[in-house]
Specification:
Blueprint (H helix, E strand, L loop, with lengths): L5 E11 L2 H11 L3 E6 L2 E5 L9 E5 L4 E9 L2 H13 L4 E4 L11 E5 L5 E5 L22 E9 L2 H10 L3 E7 L5 E7 L7 E5 L4 E8 L3 H13 L6 E7 L6 E6 L5 E6 L12 E4 L15 H5 L2 E2 L29
Parallel strand pairs: 1-4, 5-8, 9-12, 10-17, 13-16
Antiparallel strand pairs: 1-5, 2-3, 3-4, 6-7, 7-8, 9-13, 10-11, 11-12, 13-18, 14-15, 15-16
Bound molecules: 3,3-dihydroxy-4-oxocyclohexa-1,5-diene-1-sulfonic acid, calcium ion and fe (ii) ion.
Family: Belongs to the extradiol ring-cleavage dioxygenase family.
Pfam families: Glyoxalase
InterPro entries: DHPA_dOase_Mn/Fe (IPR011981), Glyas_Bleomycin-R_OHBP_Dase (IPR029068), Glyas_Fos-R_dOase_dom (IPR004360), GlyoxalaseI/FosfomycinResist (IPR050383), HPCD_C_sf (IPR044904), VOC_core (IPR037523), Xdiol_ring_cleave_dOase_1/2 (IPR000486)
């Protein structure tokens, strides 16, 4: 089938139960720039982002993922996306400018074969350049949205779906018989736009936000410690095996997980080869062999359908946490 030409992971829309608390976390602490706000929503972007937003926080009854969104190369690719998912028999909803998310033009929203609410758009309002407005760089100095990480019970099915959308695969975690535990897949020329964590799903595992340097990852942890909010730090700082990125994971007031992530690598050559980790290699998730805290494997955010109802989840086919690896048995 004729897949749309996806350029990159572009924005996520999260439902938060307390917009003021979310503003403290995502704006005051992480340093996102408020491009636009109304009584029920915040439209945020990082310092390097030249388009309207990469994160929308809207007031909601429950903490959930409203949708993730990929930018496509041309307006015609929005039509292609609609056709691609309609031919798969998936729910699709076309949204003209003004009918969907503020700042976004013509778009199509679908529930993909993995059960995730996904938008494909081309037109988005441009925004003034902040790259060298150092006077506005604050907190963790978030540069841009880098990736989505999604929980799904069938990693091979997730891999096949994103392969059919033209995504490359930079790295995997595999068992001794090459059973697939996790995969990192890309359209932009870095390690990933989307990654799959085995577990019940569809659920959102985390949003990955890029900073320019590792000192901003360390500063993020210091900022939360400084104001006695260290309980928001879930995992790290540390160095990943997969992606080689330096990282820290946080949970926002609603439990939405976010990763501050820097220094992965280029994947843009046409013959770029997948790097395969064995699930028994305890450097795979933390290169220094530090254990992965159980909540990181087990907890994730509910996702909504196109009518805003929480999607039912199904259980993992493969449970990496059950594989006895690393000092604490969790890898
Ligand atoms: O972005 C990522 C890169 C690497 C890892 S892992 O913990 O090294 O598997 C997790 C992650 O998907 O969040
Ligand atoms: Ca902690
Ligand atoms: Fe990540």
């Amino acid at each position: 089938m004729n897949a749309p030409d996806v350029v990159r992971s572009a924005y996520a829309q999260l439902a938060v139960t307390d917009l003021g608390a979310a503003r403290w976390f995502w704006v005051d602490m992480l340093g996102f720039y408020v491009q636009y706000e109304d009584s029920g929503s915040l439209y945020l972007r990082g310092t390097d982002e030249l388009t309207h937003h990469s994160l929308v926080l809207r007031k909601g009854e429950i903490a959930a993922l409203d949708h993730i969104a990929y930018r496509v190369r041309t307006p015609e690719d929005v039509d292609k996306a609609e056709k691609f998912f309609a031919e798969l028999g998936r729910p699709v909803k076309r949204l003209k400018k003004g009918e969907g998310t503020y700042g976004i033009g013509d778009a199509v929203r679908v529930v993909d074969p993995l059960g995730f609410p996904v938008e494909f758009f081309h037109d988005i309002d441009h925004a003034e350049r902040l790259i060298q407005r150092y006077d506005l760089h604050r907190g963790a100095e978030i540069a841009r949205l880098d990736h989505f990480n999604i929980c799904t019970p069938d990693i091979p099915a997730a891999y096949a779906h994103y392969k059919s959308l033209g995504f490359g695969c930079s790295e995997t975690i595999e068992g001794d018989e090459h059973e697939l535990y996790a995969a990192w897949m890309y359209r932009k020329q870095t390690v990933h736009d989307v990654a799959f964590t085995g577990g019940s799903g569809p659920r959102l595992h985390h949003l990955g936000l890029a900073t320019h340097e590792s000192h901003q990852v360390l500063r993020t942890a210091d900022l939360f410690g400084a104001v006695r909010k260290e309980h928001h730090i879930e995992r790290g700082p540390g160095r990943h095996g997969v992606s080689n990125a330096f990282y820290v994971y946080l949970r926002d007031p609603d439990g939405h997980r976010v990763e501050i992530y820097t220094s992965d690598y280029y994947t843009g050559d046409p013959d770029h080869e997948t790097y395969r980790w064995n699930v028994h290699d305890d450097r795979r998730r933390d290169f220094w062999g530090n254990a992965v805290i159980e909540s990181w494997y087990k907890e994730a955010t509910a996702v909504l359908d196109l009518d805003g109802r929480p999607q039912p989840v199904s259980d993992a086919l493969l449970d990496e946490a059950a594989v006895k690896v690393g000092a604490d048995g969790l890898g």
